[in-house]
Structure formats: structure tokens, C-alpha cells
């Protein structure tokens, strides 16, 4: 399945944020990557700022261009604030939820677990990372995979951060997707309104 395979540190430095979960790359140098990185701080156009915000969201959630456009179109057809619905749909992806629950240390690792059939939804194996969860869906680790080292290590180092829209059961090694989160509950530093303005052009 298609996914971004390019350099991760470059992207993190470009946005000055730990896009892929590794904060060292973003904090190492305060200017963009490349030979002329130090001298590239010229004023950006409105379009460039909006485009950069879309790129940041795409890299953060591990979604390619066509997928992202499809998700945006889906969000725009729903009633409500398009930008908030866009982020809710991204948060409801199975790979993102596996990451949020702490079953995998990064979204990329979560995607791999899903693709390799280690993850179940309501007891059934689902190997589609973009699968959209609904309220009260149960996301768990397949019985045969519960002793997998990558999963046990990730859960052992699981962050104490609890997300209000998720419920984790350490005994059963599963979590419940309670409902779509509101914008103020989503921690990602994304200015979704800029993305809406970009697609509105």
C-alpha cells in the first residue's frame, strides 16, 4: 500500500515539529534542511502557508494526497465545521487509534501492525489502516499477537496521557473508541482552517 517513504528528519526540520514522533530531528537545528536552509527565511505567500499546513497534516497522519483529498471531500459534505470534521475523520482512522492507544509507538508502526493482521475491530481482524471507526468500536490486539515484543514494549512504555474519546483496558489489551473528539481535545498543532481555505480556492 502507498505511503510516504522519504526522509523523516527533513520533514520534521522543515516544519520545526516532531511530525513523525522523533523530537530530536526537529530540535537539532532551527532552520530548514538543505544547502541554502539558513537563507530561506523569506516571507511566504498566503497560498504557501495554506499548502504547508495541508502538508503538515498529511505527514502527521501518514496520508497521501489522494487519500487526504477524499477525506476532505467527505468532511465537506457533512454538516458542521469542515476543518474540525476533517481532523475527527483523521483521528477515527484505525492506524491512528492504534497509535493513540499506545499499542504502537508511532503511526507508521501502527500502520504496519494493522497491515500484518495483528489488530482486531469488534473481534474481527481488520488489515485496512484507513478503516474508519465508529462510536463504541472495540480495537484490540489479536490473541496470537499479544506476546509480540513490539506490542508489549510499546505498551510497557505507554504514555500516561489519556485521550477522553478513548478507553483502554490493559487486562484485555483492547480499547474503545467512544466518540469523535472535539477540536480542543485533539492535541495536534494543525491550523485546519488554512486547509479549508486552500481547498476553497
Question: How does this model look, in words?
Answer:
With 201 residues, the chain is α+β, with helices and mostly antiparallel strands. The chain folds into two domains: 8-89 and 188-199, Ribosomal protein S4/S9, N-terminal domain (Ribosomal Protein S4 Delta 41, Chain A, domain 1), CATH 1.10.1050; 93-179, Structural Genomics Hypothetical 15.5 Kd Protein In mrcA-pckA Intergenic Region, Chain A. It is built from nine helices and five strands. The protein has helices at 8-15, 23-28, 46-61, 65-77, 82-91, 94-100, 107-115, 149-156, 192-199; strands spanning 119-121, 124-125, 137-141, 166-169, 174-177. Strands 2-1-3-5-4 form a five-stranded antiparallel beta sheet, covered by helices on one side. Strand 1 and strand 2 form a beta hairpin. The mean pLDDT is 88.
Quick overview of this protein structure:
This protein is an alpha+beta fold.
What are the main properties of this structure?
201 residues, alpha+beta, Ribosomal Protein S4 Delta 41, Chain A, domain 1, Structural Genomics Hypothetical 15.5 Kd Protein In mrcA-pckA Intergenic Region, Chain A, 2 domains, five-stranded antiparallel beta sheet, 9 helices, 5 strands
Q: Quickly give the structural class.
A: alpha+beta
Based on DSSP secondary structure assignment, what is the total number of beta strands? Answer: 5
Proper CATH architecture of the largest domain: Orthogonal Bundle
Question: For the report, how would you describe the main beta sheet?
Answer: 5 strands, antiparallel
Output the strand order for the largest sheet.
2-1-3-5-4
Q: Poorly predicted ranges (pLDDT <50, ≥5 residues)?
A: none
Q: Please, how many helices?
A: 9
SSE pattern, N- to C-terminal: HHHHHHHEEEHEEH
**CATH class value of the largest domain:** Mainly Alpha
Roughly what percent helix?
40-55%
Mean pLDDT: 88
**CATH topology annotation of the largest domain:** Ribosomal Protein S4 Delta 41, Chain A, domain 1
Amino acid at each position: 500500500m502507498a505511503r510516504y517513504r522519504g526522509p523523516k528528519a527533513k520533514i520534521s526540520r522543515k516544519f520545526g515539529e516532531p511530525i513523525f514522533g522523533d523530537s530530536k530531528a526537529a530540535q537539532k537545528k532551527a532552520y530548514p534542511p538543505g544547502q541554502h536552509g539558513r537563507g530561506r527565511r523569506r516571507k511566504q505567500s498566503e497560498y504557501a502557508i495554506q499548502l504547508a499546513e495541508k502538508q503538515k497534516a498529511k505527514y502527521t497522519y501518514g496520508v497521501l494526497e489522494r487519500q487526504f483529498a477524499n477525506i476532505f471531500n467527505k468532511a465537506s459534505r457533512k454538516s458542521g465545521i469542515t476543518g474540525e470534521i476533517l481532523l475527527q475523520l483523521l483521528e477515527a482512522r484505525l492506524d491512528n487509534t492504534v497509535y493513540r492507544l499506545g499499542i504502537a509507538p508511532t503511526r507508521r508502526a501502527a500502520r504496519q501492525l494493522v497491515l500484518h493482521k495483528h489488530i482486531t475491530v469488534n473481534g474481527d481482524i481488520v488489515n485496512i489502516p484507513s478503516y474508519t471507526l465508529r462510536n463504541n468500536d472495540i480495537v484490540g490486539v489479536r490473541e496470537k499477537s499479544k506476546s509480540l515484543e513490539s506490542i508489549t514494549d510499546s505498551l510497557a512504555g505507554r504514555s500516561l496521557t489519556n485521550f477522553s474519546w478513548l478507553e483502554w483496558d490493559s487486562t484485555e489489551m483492547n480499547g474503545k473508541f467512544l466518540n469523535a473528539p472535539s477540536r480542543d481535545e485533539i492535541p495536534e498543532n494543525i491550523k485546519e482552517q488554512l486547509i479549508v481555505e486552500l481547498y476553497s480556492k
